[in-house]
C-alpha cells in the first residue's frame, strides 16, 4: 500500500519516500535477525513500518508525533497495539516487551546522538541497531582511528559494537528534503562484555581528550590527574584520534594505578 507523504518536519525528522531505500534499510536488519523483538523509532508515515510489521512477531513502532500514531493506527487497525505513543529517550522499553530487542529507524537528526547514548546504556539488551542518520554522524560513528571524523561516539560505540557503514542516501528521497545527505549504518553487539578498566573513568578519558583533540594526550588529561604524576608512556604523546579502543583502555588503566 502506497503511503502518502506529509510535508512536515518533526524533531528534525525528514520523511523517507523512496521504497527501494526503505526496503534496503529493513533488509539490513532482517538479514541479521528476524527472531528478536524490534522497536522502530520515529516511524512517521510508515515507509519502514509496512515492511517490518509482516516480518517480525514482536515489533513496536514508537513515536511522539500524535499525527503519525493516529495515521498508522488507522492504516493498520489490526496492529494498533504495536503502534505506541512513546518517547524512546525516556521510555523503559522493558515495560513494553522483554529484551533482547533490536532498534531500527530513520532517526530524527536532532536526537540521533542521544539515541545512540541510550543504546550504549542498554547495550546488553540491544544486539542490533540499523539506523539512518545525517551522513556526517553516520560516518563519525563508523569511522576508524586516524581521521578528524573519528571522535567520542566512534570510540564509545565501537567498544561494544561492530559498526558497518552500509550506504549513502540522497537528499531528494525525503520530504521535506534535508540540506545534507544521510547515511545508513548497522551496529552489531560484539563479544566485549566489560572493559579491562573502570568504565566510568574510560568514558571520562574519551570525552576529555576529544574535547581537546588538538592537544597531546599528556596535556589533555591533566584535569583528570588530581596531582598524580604519570610515568612516560608512548600513548601520552599521541592525539585522541590516533587511539583505538584498546589504547583508551590502557590509558584509563594508567590513570587508575
Q: What features would you describe in this structure?
A:
The protein has ten helices and nine strands. 32% of the residues lie in helices and 18% in strands. The protein folds into two domains: 15-189, Vaccinia Virus protein VP39 (Rossmann fold); 199-256, Orthogonal Bundle (Helicase, Ruva Protein, domain 3), CATH 1.10.8. Strand 2 (37-41), helix 2 (49-52) and strand 3 (59-63) form a beta-alpha-beta unit. The radius of gyration is 20 Å and the shape is elongated. Helix 7 packs across helix 10. The chain has helices spanning 19-30, 49-52, 66-75, 112-121, 135-142, 152-158, 199-210, 217-220, 222-225, 245-256, and strands at residues 15-16, 37-41, 59-63, 83-85, 101-106, 128-134, 161-169, 174-175, 182-189. Mean pLDDT is 92; it is low at 1-11. A seven-stranded mixed beta sheet has the order 4-3-2-5-6-9-7, sandwiched between helices. The protein has a two-stranded antiparallel sheet with strand order 1-8. It starts with 14 loop residues before the first strand and ends with a helix. The protein is α/β, with parallel strands linked by helices.
Comma- or semicolon-separated keywords:
single chain; 257 residues; alpha/beta; Rossmann fold; Helicase, Ruva Protein, domain 3; 2 domains; 7-stranded mixed sheet; two-stranded antiparallel sheet; 32% helix
Question: Any idea what the shape is?
Answer: elongated
Class by alpha and beta content: alpha/beta
Give the helix tally.
10
Number of extended strands: 9
User: Class of the largest domain, according to the CATH hierarchy?
Assistant: Alpha Beta
**At the third CATH level, what is the topology name of the largest domain?**
Rossmann fold
CATH architecture of the largest domain: 3-Layer(aba) Sandwich
CATH superfamily caption of the largest domain: Vaccinia Virus protein VP39
What is the average per-residue confidence, as pLDDT, rounded to a whole number? 92
What share of the residues lie within helices?
25-40%
From the N-terminal CA to the C-terminal CA, the straight-line distance is 61 Å
Please, how many domains?
2
Order of helices and strands: EHEHEHEEHEHHEEEHHHH
Which percent band covers the strand fraction?
Answer: 15-25%
